[in-house]
Design a protein that fits this description.
Layout: E1 11-12, E2 19-20, H1 54-65
Antiparallel strand pairs: 1-2
Amino acid sequence: MDKSGNQAPTNVCPACGVRFTCGMNAGQPTCWCTAFPPLLAVPAGEAAGSCYCPDCLRKCIESMQAR
């Protein structure tokens, strides 16, 4: 488990390199990312490890909404 008491990290953010837990990769029915606006497609298959961490996903979505 990580410091926050969540499950062990399953992914590495391609933007900042931080390790984080993807609910889907951890076998949960949903992921924390479902709380964000659906502006980005969720990667499938081999690209699934390329999901952004919560902070980077938030920044990416804010940037897209500002356009």
